[in-house]
Amino acid sequence: MTRQCVAYFRVSTDRQGQSGLGLEAQRDAVKTFMKRYGWDLVDEFEEVETGKGRNAQAIRPQLAQALKVARQKKAVLMIAKLDRLARNVAFISNLMDAGVDFVACDMPDANRLTVHILAAVAEDEARRISERTKAALAAKKARGERMGNPQSHETLNAPRIAKADAFAESMRSTMEDFLRRGLSQKKMADELNARNIKSARGKSWSVGSIQNCLRRLG
Length: 218
Hints:
The protein has 218 residues and is α/β, with parallel strands linked by helices. The protein folds into two domains: 4-116, Resolvase, N-terminal catalytic domain (Rossmann fold); 153-217, no CATH class. The chain has nine helices and four strands; from the N terminus they run βααβαβαβααααα. Strands 2-1-3-4 form a four-stranded parallel sheet, sandwiched between helices. β3, α4 and β4 form a beta-alpha-beta unit. α8 packs across α9 (207-217). 28% of the residues are buried.
């Protein structure tokens, strides 16, 4: 019997979501795994979130939806790599208790103990990187070197932000119609692409660009 899965893709910043950085690699890994082992795809979800902190699962709506569909369809949640979910042991533990099995394409034979160990190692690595970065910045400040860019982030990005806000406003009626119809973000993207409407960056719509537009509309 063919096994069914729900694919979950995640990038950790808006910039990655807009550029597609990392998403194609994740998609390729999942497609290759499915073809090799004969899995069927039930649905897929794409998240553009930082997802930091103990409440990481709660602030990832697409992950919550992916878990819901996986439970309903009795499917497995499939991810390209473990670190696409989190570098946090508590988060991994909560996910594993959610009543949904999951498989990471980079380690399909991992058991619960293996997953906990790898998550702990990833969490420790992230902590060490953070400590080294803070130490380097403190040393730079102690030497009297100027910190950061002389121009503020807001000033440098003001034209781009204004343009993106204006584009989102032009899409307000369309997005409100989609929301009234109860469309998923993936179906919103599919419908806009079918209409040959381009995103703010002049490209095809993705779940990430839908999320960015909705976020700007409040």
